[in-house]
Structures are given as structure tokens and as C-alpha cells.
Amino acid sequence: MTTASSTAVPTLIGSVQRALRLLEAVGAHRDGAPAKQLAREAGLPLPTAYHLLRTLTHEGYLRRENGVFLFGTAAERLVDEGSLQNRRSRMTELLSRWRDTIGAPVYCAVYREGEIELIAVADNPATPAVDEWASFRETGHAHAIGQCLLSQLDEKAREDHLDRHPVRPLTRYSVRDRSAFLERLRSLERMEPVIERQEYALGTVCAAIPITAGFTAAAMAISVPLEQEDRLLPAVEQLRGEVASLLRSFVFSISI
Fold first, then answer.
1. Cα-only R_g, the chain
2. What is the pTM for the complete model shown?
3. Integer Cα distance of 61 and 54 in angstroms
4. Which of 11, 191, 213, 248 is least enclosed, having the fewest CB within 10 Å?
5. Phi-psi region of 114 (alpha: psi -120 to 50; beta: other; left: phi over 0)
6. What is the pLDDT of residues 79-106, one digit of tens each?
7. Cβ distance 59 to 26 under 8 Å?
8. CA 239, CA 220: separation in Å to the nearest integer?
9. Which span out of 4-8, 42-46, 203-207 was modeled with the highest average pLDDT?
10. What residues contact residue 21 under an 8 Å CB cut-off, 6+ apart?
11. Strands 115-122 and 194-197: what pairing?
């Protein structure tokens, strides 16, 4: 009687393995390579290589130009998504480190395609992030992140944003109307922290700093309970120092 082995070899799909070897061969040639060379490097019979190359080209993973095969848009998209995931993982690691150093939740957001996008938050049970009880995207006028991002836009872009997401008070401390909000943005000093006290959430104060990220408006922020308000400015200055140190050490681009 035979028994199943816990180390049994899994069922493998040969055609998938062969296609992957072809993709690896294509990836080894920046300027592409012809079918015969790819077949030889992948260890495949030429008819098999032709069949797989046609299939991969049809599906968009390869493209043929001037007799050579190169990566197509589908393969490039996979690479881009992997790179995006790596950048986001790196961002999460950085924010977690800063959270622990500063002792407050840390947020990172960008303004992309006309919307506020919160791309990473680092908090823990001891330093919880603000509960998103009203969409951050739609209430940029009421929180430090949104105010910081909108302050970096030109007048036309701000007006367009507020046409789509009108100013409305969320708490008794919120800005009351559009004209008052625009006036506040105009009064902000360039590159200075934006402070918000209980405008989005009662019992919470926040500060955000603008981040240079090419042509993308970006911001990082922290929040603390109202009873710890005296910590806010020293903490955000500490965050700014951490970010500045990173910028000095290598090119820091928030293109997520």
C-alpha cells in the first residue's frame, strides 16, 4: 500500500512554464530579440516558440517590432503594479517608523486627477488615526490634509474642486462658507504647517505639511487628541525634520 507524501511534486502546466521562459528571455534583451534567438535561449523547439510568441503577442504581453519581440503593455502593466506595491510598502514602513518616533498617527496624501487621495496611514491602538466618519475626499475644506493640498493648487483648480465638493461645516469649529475658506487658503504661508483644530472631528487637532513631489501636490500630517494640543506643533516640526532628512539622503518621489 502506498501513502501520499506531504512533499509530493505539485501538478505543473508545461505550456505556462514554457511561456514564462520566453518572457524571461525577452526581458534579457532591452532592444528585443527575434523568435529564433528567444527559442534557443528558452530551450524550446522553434514551432513551439512561434506558437507561444503569437499567443503572448495577441494577449498584449509581447509586441513585435521590426522582427523582434519586446514586452507589451500587459507585461509593462504588471511591472508597474509591482513597482507601485513596492513604493507603497516602503511608504508604509516609513510612516510606521515616524509614528513610533513621534508618538502620533502619521498620514500621507496626494491630490491626483482632481481628488484628495489618502495613500497611507500609520497608527496603532495607542495612537489611533482619526475615524473617517465623513469622506476625506469630499471634506478637504475641513481637515488639515485637505487644506494643505488645496493650498498648493492654483485658483482655477481650487474653484473646480469646491464646485464638486462644496464647503459645508462639519462641526461648530469648521469654516462656514466658500469665500471664508478661500480667504484662509490665500493667507497660508508657503511651506508652513497647516493647523486644524476640531474642524473635522471634535476632540482632535491636526497639522499637515506640504511635500515636494514633482508636479504632484502632496502632504503629510499628524493628529493628536485635543488634550495633547501642546504636542502638535513640536510633533509636526519633528515630522518635517524626518522628511527633510529623507529628502537629503535620496530622491523621494510620492508618485503613488
1. 26
2. 0.65
3. 10
4. 11
5. left
6. 555 444 555 667 778 899 999 999 999 9
7. no
8. 8
9. 203-207
10. 42, 43, 44
11. unpaired
